[in-house]
């Protein structure tokens, strides 16, 4: 029997993401918005990485208002990692329906109930009915 997650993957909404913006593109965009020289923006971006590594290495979480908090952690095998928790304003900003103008697949799938998903799935996969 199929699981609800399989139906959500097939019929639910999906973002059709563009190619990842690389550092040089981000730097050029920030420079054009702020009037700050590209090389200075690049330097600040590189120093931000160094600051995150420095403070995490000291056991100090680092909060960047409007961006989020970076916190060091360790797993049971002693492997260190950096956790990132996005700022509330950042999360609210992307969740604003007017902000996202990119492409989306199955947008109407956002309103499907589990019963709707079962109907769609079972019709397309009669040998593997959806378990809800």
Count of individual beta strands: 7
Helix/strand structural class = alpha+beta
For the biggest β-sheet, the strand order reads 3-4-5
Alpha carbon gyration radius: 21 Å
Q: Provide the residue-averaged pLDDT.
A: 94
Shape: extended
Low-confidence spans: pLDDT under 50, at least 5 residues? none
Approximate strand percentage: 15-25%
**Continuous helix count:** 5
Q: What's the helical proportion of residues? A: 40-55%
* Helix and strand element order: EHEHHEEEHEHE
Measured between the Cα atoms of the first and last residue, the distance is 10 Å
Characterize the main sheet.
3 strands, antiparallel
Description:
- The protein is extended, with a radius of gyration of 21 Å.
- The chain has five helices and seven strands.
- The longest helix has 20 residues, at 38-57.
- It is 45% helix and 20% strand.
- The chain has helices at residues 4-11, 23-34, 38-57, 88-95, 114-124, and strands at residues 2-3, 14-16, 62-64, 68-74, 80-86, 103-105, 130-131.
- The protein has a domain at 1-18 and 106-132.
- Helix 1 crosses helix 5 (114-124) and helix 2 (23-34) crosses helix 3.
- By secondary structure, the chain is of the alpha+beta class.
Summarize the structure.
This protein has 132 residues and is of the alpha+beta class. The protein has five helices and seven strands.
Question: Which keywords apply here?
Answer:
132 residues; alpha+beta; 3-stranded antiparallel β-sheet; two-stranded parallel sheet; 7 strands; 20% strand
Topology record:
Elements: E1 2-3, H1 4-11, E2 14-16, H2 23-34, H3 38-57, E3 62-64, E4 68-74, E5 80-86, H4 88-95, E6 103-105, H5 114-124, E7 130-131
Helix pairs in contact: 1-5, 2-3
């Amino acid at each position: 029997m199929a699981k609800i997650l399989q139906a959500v993957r097939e019929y639910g909404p999906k973002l059709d993401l563009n190619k990842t913006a690389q550092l040089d593109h981000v730097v050029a965009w920030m420079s054009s918005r702020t009037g700050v020289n590209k090389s200075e923006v690049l330097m600040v971006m590189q120093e931000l990485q160094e600051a995150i590594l420095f403070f995490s290495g000291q056991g100090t979480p680092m909060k960047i208002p409007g961006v989020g908090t970076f916190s060091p952690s360790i797993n049971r095998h002693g492997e260190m990692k950096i956790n990132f928790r996005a700022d509330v304003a950042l999360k609210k900003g992307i969740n604003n329906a007017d902000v996202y103008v990119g492409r989306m697949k199955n947008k109407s799938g956002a309103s499907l109930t589990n019963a709707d998903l079962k109907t769609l799935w079972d019709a397309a996969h009669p040998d593997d009915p959806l378990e809800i």
